[in-house]
Design a protein that fits this description.
The structure holds 2 protein chains of 2 kinds.
Chain A lengths: L1 H10 L9 H43 L4 H4 L8 H9 L18 E3 L8 E3 L1 E3 L3 E2 L8 E5 L14 E7 H4 L8 E5 L2 E7 L3 E9 L2 E8 L6 H9 L1 E3 L9
Antiparallel strand pairs in A: 1-3, 2-11, 4-5, 5-6, 6-10, 7-8, 8-9, 9-10
Helix pairs in contact in A: 2-4
Chain B lengths: L3 H24 L4 H22 L4 H22 L24 H6 L3 H12 L4 H8 L3 H27 L4
The chains are: A alpha+beta, B mainly alpha.
Chain lengths: ~240, ~170
């Protein structure tokens, strides 16, 4: 036993030496590039908001506000323009955008093929099931333009069922407690993706991860999760 | 133009990158390429979050990001289909020290990522149970059970590898 602990401790001594200035510069460059991409994304959303506000104001000036809510064309995909319209529009069938400040997409009812082990009630608009990603314990929802690499989660919504005992103390993951279908959940954002863990009973925890570029708010991810149920065909991810 | 964020970040990289890479290498079971990927991912996230984390324990935050990146990577790998090859691929000899009875990094790589992280942070990095629990965002009890199970599994694997290398029957 002591031998094993000594050998483990000795692994720490392995060293590749201090980083070169080129490596430091490369790390900084990657960070800056990621920050720039995030700002460009935010800037694009802001521009859309300004344009939408201008369009609404112009229309209101000529047609009055009575018809404004039903005659302005909605963009195909979510944007702040969509959100702006949704916040003022006549009540329509949608999920979870109320109170959203950063929603870029809306949830719509799902009627496509169900992934094995799950039933899904709603999905982000324009998203579908990547069938080859369905493993019995996980599935991926993505727009048609997304790559089909099941190991890539960029721009996708990924759902995985795991044994809570293997996941550890997940009740302390994330930043905030939520309730999903009456069961406890936790939600948080690490700057790349929003992650939601929630119990579905029998010691099973489902992990829903939405890449930030999708533009789902925390509330939308919660609404999505409220529409996810498991079936007896569910398997569990291990390790 | 270099901002305060850039200067602080570069100083952190100079000071801590080597350590992060060392930790990542052990966490990945000796996979240096994956370790480098994880460290780059970790540092990018640190840069993005710098304004809100500069005042907190950076090392602790970095370890947490590194472990999360490892677990995410493992989840991705678990979704990749098994590929069938016509030939058995060549495998380099394990880089274990002379006199080692078995390859400890390779054995570590066989543990589930959460268990591996607990063992590495606790017994390779030398963190306390509380520090390990903080890095893994779990309870101290969970750290104790994961490390105990991890060490037991490593002893089992050592037995297996001894058996393999020596050609003895058990």
């Amino acid at each position: 036993m002591t031998d094993l602990l000594d050998r483990l401790a000795s692994l720490e001594a392995t060293s590749s030496g201090p980083p070169s200035e080129a490596t430091v510069a490369a790390d900084l460059g990657r960070g800056r590039a990621a920050l720039r991409r995030g700002r460009l994304r935010a800037g694009g959303v802001l521009s859309a908001a300004v344009l939408a506000a201008g369009a609404v104001a112009a229309y209101a000036g000529t047609a009055g506000t009575h018809h404004q809510q039903t005659t302005i064309a909605l963009p195909q995909h979510g944007s702040t323009a969509t959100r702006h319209h949704q916040q003022t529009a006549t009540k329509q069938h949608q999920h979870g955008t109320a109170g959203s400040k950063h929603a870029k997409i809306k949830l719509v009812d799902y009627s496509g093929q169900e992934p094995p082990g799950f039933n899904v009630a709603s999905v982000p608009q324009g998203f579908g099931l990547q069938e080859q990603s369905s493993t019995g314990f996980s599935f991926i929802l993505a727009p048609p333009s997304a790559d089909h690499n099941a190991g890539s989660f960029i721009g996708k919504l990924v759902v995985t069922a795991e044994a809570g005992s293997e996941l550890g103390d997940w009740q302390h993951f994330g930043d905030q407690s939520v309730t999903i279908n009456g069961n406890p959940g936790r939600i948080g954002d690490d700057g790349t993706a929003t992650q939601l863990w929630f119990s579905v009973g029998n010691g099973v925890v489902v992990d829903a991860q939405a890449w930030d570029s999708i533009g789902m708010t925390h509330q939308q991810l919660v609404d999505f999760a409220n529409g996810v149920t498991t079936t007896p065909a569910l398997q569990l991810s291990h390790g | 133009m270099t901002s305060a964020r850039d200067e602080e970040f570069q100083e952190f990289v100079r000071r801590r990158r080597e350590k992060l890479l060392s930790t990542a290498t052990v966490l990945t079971g000796g996979d240096q390429h994956l370790a480098e990927d994880l460290v780059q991912m970790c540092l990018t996230k640190l840069y993005l979050a710098w304004p809100r984390i500069r005042a907190v324990k950076l090392d602790s935050y970095a370890r947490r990001v590194l472990v999360n990146a490892l677990i995410d990577e493992k989840r991705g790998l678990s979704r990749r289909r098994e590929q069938v090859w016509a030939d058995v691929p060549d495998r380099p000899q394990s880089a274990c020290a002379e006199g080692d009875r078995y390859d400890l990094p390779e054995a570590l790589g066989k543990l589930p990522p959460g268990m591996r992280a607990a063992v590495v942070l606790r017994h390779v990095e030398g963190l306390s149970i509380e520090e390990t629990a903080d890095a893994l965002r779990c309870s101290t009890g969970n750290v104790k059970s994961q490390t105990a199970r991890g060490l037991a599994r490593l002893r089992d694997l050592a037995g297996d590898q001894d058996h393999t290398y020596s050609g003895e029957t058990k």
